[in-house]
From TrEMBL:
This is Beta-aryl ether-cleaving protein. Pfam families: GST_C_7 (PF22041), GST_N_3 (PF13417). InterPro entries: Glutathione-S-Trfase_C_sf, Glutathione_S-Trfase_N, GST_UstS-like_C, Thioredoxin-like_sf. Residues 8-84 form the GST N-terminal domain.
Length: 229
């Protein structure tokens, strides 16, 4: 049985960049499940699996289709209980929900501003038109105006991660001694930046950067298969 992870790319299919798809790629590797990744550009997502979802990631596992990164992680945990756990119990699910909220509320917008023009330039012309229109509709500003705020976000980025830094003072991963899905959620956000705009602006001695490097090394360097921009 071939599992298929549908993900997001620009003109270059070898550079998938969605933070949500990266979460699922590491979750599958964590479970020791083989899969094939099939990246699609924004405007082709509606054609995947007869329009199953407006967004990626989408996982096909045999006859089963699952959308949304967190729903996919929950599905993998239930479908493969004998494989390494992604949550370690209900507490780990609650932790993952918190990290998801932290990532989306605190990290995603700064990364968007730092990476938005880089993402635009990675797309073909059709997707560039879609990207401009959809981001203006969602964020209320032209992408150039958002990008102009990127340098200020870059300067403040490390301080936004202080709660993570303090947590990692006590343990190597957010999940404790080994990674859980909570780690993959935040990893996905930083990997999104790494692939589109270059490594996150953190000093080499930053505990968060050291954690990120450990995550890049997981599963035979799965995260490093796409080089930094």
């Amino acid at each position: 049985m071939t599992r298929v992870l549908y993900s997001l790319c620009g003109k270059d299919e070898s550079r998938p960049f969605s933070p949500h798809c990266w979460k699922v790629a590491l979750a599958l590797a964590h479970k020791g499940l083989e899969f094939v990744e099939r990246p699609y550009p924004f405007t082709a997502i509606a054609n995947i699996e007869d329009g199953f979802s407006k967004t990626v990631p989408i996982l096909r596992d045999g006859d089963r289709l699952v959308r949304d990164s967190f729903e996919i992680a929950l599905y993998l945990e239930e479908a493969y209980p004998d494989r390494p756990t992604l949550f370690g119990g209900e507490g780990g699910k609650a932790l993952s929900r918190f990290i998801e909220s932290f990532s989306q509320m605190i990290v995603h917008m700064p990364v968007t501003k730092m990476a938005i023009m880089h993402i635009h330039d990675m797309l073909d012309e059709t997707d560039q038109v879609y990207f401009r229109e959809s981001r203006f509709e969602r964020l209320g500003k032209p992408i150039e105006e958002l990008a102009a705020e990127g340098e200020a976000e870059r300067a403040a980025f490390a301080s936004r991660l202080e709660p993570v830094r303090r947590t990692l003072h006590f343990q190597p991963f957010l999940g404790g001694d080994s990674p859980l899905f909570a780690d993959y959620i935040l990893f996905g956000a930083l990997q999104w930046m790494r692939v589109t705009a270059g490594p996150p602006p953190l000093s080499q001695d930053d505990t968060v950067l050291q954690w990120f490097e450990r995550c890049l090394d997981l599963y035979d360097g799965l995260g490093r298969r796409v080089v930094a921009a």
